[in-house]
Write a structure and sequence with these properties.
The protein is an alpha+beta fold. It is 33% helix and 35% strand. The strands form two sheets. The chain has a five-stranded antiparallel beta sheet, with helices on one face. It has a three-stranded antiparallel beta sheet with strand order 6-7-8, with helices on one face. The longest helix has 55 residues, at 8-62.
Length: 166
């Protein structure tokens, strides 16, 4: 007699194997999705840092011709004096990072300010080189950022080219 259909044991085996294959495919898709999300956040953070570096560098060197003394770096603040309109030492301009809000405020000579914010920055600190022969216009900027529960740092240098910054 010819047999038509499947036995219960055959159906159980096929369902079990199908479940294993589907679970493996689902786990792989979730893994790819998690990696993609983490990679996207990392690229976003690096883009924000690159923009911060470019804007902070432009702000810093924008005062080259009017700086009257070497920059002062103190934790989350970078400041220096700029010449007033009469050529005398005028006001102090500062870049200040607020770790609570993640906002960097760049002061301007006219008393106005510009703000830069980031979703990933947790700290921006400034320091001067401790070497005796270091350029007095050289400032190290260290950016700390968090992506996927991991903290990373990125450091770049700012250099005043003005001969007045001695």
């Amino acid at each position: 007699m010819k047999r038509h259909g499947f036995t219960l044991a055959e159906l159980v085996i096929v369902i079990a194997l199908s479940s294993v294959v589907l679970l493996a495919i689902t786990a792989m898709m979730l893994s790819i999705s998690g990696y993609s999300r983490a990679r996207s956040a990392e690229l976003e953070a690096k883009s924000e840092i690159s923009m911060l570096e470019a804007r902070l560098g432009a702000w810093f060197t924008g005062f080259d011709s009017v700086v009257t003394e070497a920059p002062i770096a103190d934790e989350n603040t970078l400041s220096f004096r700029v010449a007033g309109s009469d050529g005398e030492s005028g006001k102090t301009v500062s870049a200040v990072f607020n770790p609570k809000t993640g906002v960097l405020t760049l002061g301007k000579a006219d008393g106005e300010s510009e703000t830069l914010s980031s979703a990933h920055l947790s700290d921006v600190s400034f320091s001067k080189s401790t070497e005796a022969d270091a350029d007095p216009g050289l400032v190290r900027c260290t950016v700390t950022y968090r992506v996927d529960e991991k903290t990373r740092t990125y450091t770049f240098l700012l250099l005043k080219r003005s001969e007045n910054a001695q």
